[in-house]
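Dear all,

This email documents one entry for the complex benchmark we are building for the journal club exercise. For each entry we list the sequence lines for every component of the assembly. Then comes the predicted three-dimensional structure of the complex as a token string, followed by one or two observations. Please use this as the template for your own entries, and keep the labels exactly as they appear.
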Amino acid sequence: MIQTFFNPEIIAASWPIVRAGLWNTVLLSLLVVPLGLGGGLILALLASAKNPAVRWPLMAWVDFFRAFPPLVLLILLFAGLPFAGLELGGFTCVAVAFFLNTGAYYGEILRAGIDSVPAGQIEAARSTGLSRLQTMAYVVLPQAVRNVLPDLLSNTLEVVKLTSLGSVVAVPELLYQARQAQSITYSPTPIVVAAAIYFLMLWPVVRLLSRLENRALAGR
Amino acid sequence: MSSWDRFTDTFFNTKVMLKYLPDILSGVVVTIELALLIVVTGIAAGLALALLRSLGIRPLNWLIIFVVDLFRSLPPLVVIVLIYFGLPSVDLSPSGFVSTWLSLAFVLMAFSEEIFWAGITSVAKGQWEAARSTGLSFGQTLMSVVLPQALRLTIPPLTNRTIAITKGTALGTVVAVTEILGQASSAMSNSYNPSPLMMGAAAYIVLFFPVVVAARWVETKFAWKR
């Protein structure tokens, strides 16, 4: 059992490959989280216009991406677009797919946050002479973000986990590298190592989230 | 040929679409089977764990928390790959279908346990005490007093999470499950044409979009009035 799944020699031999993957997963996360947050912020700000002609199409946009599996989106970009003469490469496809998919999720969360700020505050801020933009930036958004912080964090956790999809389009992130190492060594040990790395990296976030969620419920 | 014709001929080629329609439909059946299995077993297991946890047996609770945390922190694709490529080394060879089902059911179990548990703990302690003091047993209190209130609270987060995880059936492609994406990809490489992929994408929308809209409705219906 230990020889198969936790073989020390194989761990040592495959470590450079797996480590490169870990590094790429961190870099990829640092790219796609701000990208998704940015996309989500744009969606949420547009939706806060309260104009039904803007709000409904945005809601449909968000629901579309909630219904559409991110892997299908990724394959569509990676394998479908070349037929239209557009070859983006695995990395760019991941970036675009995440911008669309996680942007929709972040957008939904931020919209709920913005909606949670009472209208009276906006009126008060505007009547003190703040512009629309200033009201949004200094009054609404800080409270909105605070109100939905657990959801934002939980979505960010999902986004980091989702970077493992990059392995399907040959982005050399943690899972991809581990599978490479697995096929070289004929041993599942590298995949176990990758799983252990994901767990150690994300466990603290899961713990924190579960505390925040319990506190939110207890506060009702 | 105009560029528009060329576009439709490439991405919405009727001949290719008709030829591979049966494959995509069989993929739809596999996706639905897989999704239903995951939802039923995952949520049942999650509820069972939450109920076990409410018994308050310390070492058991630590174990439950560890398992839940484990499947909340591992990417589903990693779990699938681990089961599919790892277990054959100990002479267990689950099929791609079984690997995907087990993996996503474990993940849904973890998330739903957490949600059910949060729901159970949200019911005020005084209600437990009041119910117990009227002579209800522990089981009766749980079933007739606590769960009805707890479940109501859990429905919005649970529907969201369930949709997100059942969409993950597409990950089965990686371990050769013949669900929609798998069928669409192989049809695409057989026909050198992306139309089957477009059909597959459309199939996902047809399957999941109504669920998402229904979930939105359920969310507002069950939302707690603050």
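Observations: Chain B touches chain A through 54 residues (CB under 8 Å). Chain B has a mean pLDDT of 90.
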